[in-house]
Structure formats: structure tokens, C-alpha cells
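ok so i was messing around last nite and threw this chain in just to see what happens. nothing serious, just curious
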Amino acid sequence: MLRSIAKHIEKRKVHLIVVLDEADVLIKRGASDLIYQLSRFDEEKISPRPSLSVILISQKYVLDMLDQAAMSTFRRANVIRFERYSAAELRDIVAMRAELALFPSVIDDDSVQLIADISAEFGDARFAIEMLDRSGMLAEEEGSERIMPEHVRAAKALTYSVVTETKIEELERQRKLVLLAVCRTMKDQAFVTTGEVEKTYRIVAEEYSERPRAHTQFWEYVQELSNIGLIQTKVTGDPGGGRTTYISLLDIPAKVLREKLEEVL
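result:
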């Protein structure tokens, strides 16, 4: 096959670029010999100009996975490392894909941002696109004409969730009340402010015959819930110069978490 390719290249006077995506997976499946042959493609040529270039794309450092024969050639290769995508970059990617794949107004900016925030943990555009796809499928199964934040959270829960029943049950009672307040305030929204949650928390505490804690203690509870991955907090600047803290749920639908909390309280 490679000889046939070489004849075509020579006949057409072109330079062929071979791109192997997920090269680490290919190597595990026994493609080292193919990569070796491609790396030696121009050995018998007299001309100093190469006719073939090989690009290996991998999330892992693939050169260490090659056998000695192929490695001897790739020692002279250029390695380009790409940083993980940021939340802002992922937001742009998801927005572009949504524009291509969905009807207008099917998904709003908050849900796009929620997908980006969830995916930023991994910095993976493919994961973000899969989240968009899965969220759309869940919305369709539910008969909804729009992708809501709850669909996004449900998609994350199906993919990989750090929220477990044990983690919820082990929370101290006041922390459960704060988390319940987050769920009740959230409803179908992607983000809520700490001020909104604190108001709901005081109502929830009264409902469960508990004395609501002061603002400073409430804020500490919010930080603790964020530290163990049950909620996410994000501080943004306001036009007036102030700062607002937003809370979001990334790993589980607010309705599902609310029902679990109400069972254990």
C-alpha cells in the first residue's frame, strides 16, 4: 500500500501529510509498525525534499509508547503541547456547535455557559460537545422544546457525578439546609446569587424548626459545600464596581438533589 502511495505522490508531485488522531489508542492496538514505516517513507529517495510528513495527535505523551525502531526517528520530531481549553474557550465552542446543530432559541446563554463551566474541569472540547448532545437528547426525551439547565445537570450526572448519597447523608444538618436552599432557589436556572440563596435558607431553616445562622456562618457553609464539590461558586464583577458570587449545581439536577435532601432531613 505504501509503495502505491509513493507512486501517486511521485506522479502528482505533491507532499502528503498523514494525520493520525488518538495515536495512543492506535499504538495500543498494534499500529507501531505502521507508524515506523511512515516515518521511514522517504529513506530510499534521492531527493532531499521529503514527500510525506506524519502528525500524531494524542492526549498522552505518545513518543514513550513507540517501540525503539520508531522512536529513533521521532526523537527528531517537534512536539507541540496544547493547554487545556478554558471555560471561555469552551463556551465559544459550545455556542458555535449549538448554532450549527440546533434551531434558534433551543438553548440559551446560561445553559451554554453551564456546559462550559462543567467541561472546564477537564478542559476537553469533546466532552463539552458530548454534554451538549446528551442534554439535547434528554430534553427531547422529556418532550421539551428547549434545553434547560436541569437537562445539562442531568447529562453531567449520567456522565460522571461526584455527588453521592453518602456524601449528602454525612452533611451536618445546617449544611443540608443550605444545600436545600440552593436547590429550591435554583429551580430551572443555571446560576443564582448567594443573596438569593441566603433568603431561601432562612425560610428553609424555619420550615425545619432550626435557627438560621448569621451571614458569616452561612458564607462558610457555602464555601465548604463548594470545597467538597456539591456546588460551584463563581465571583463576577458588577458594572458598579461591586462583586457578586454566583452558585451553580454542576453534577446533579436541582430537583433530584432537593428530593434526596428532603428525604434525609
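not much to say yet. Residues 125-142 form the longest helix (18 residues).
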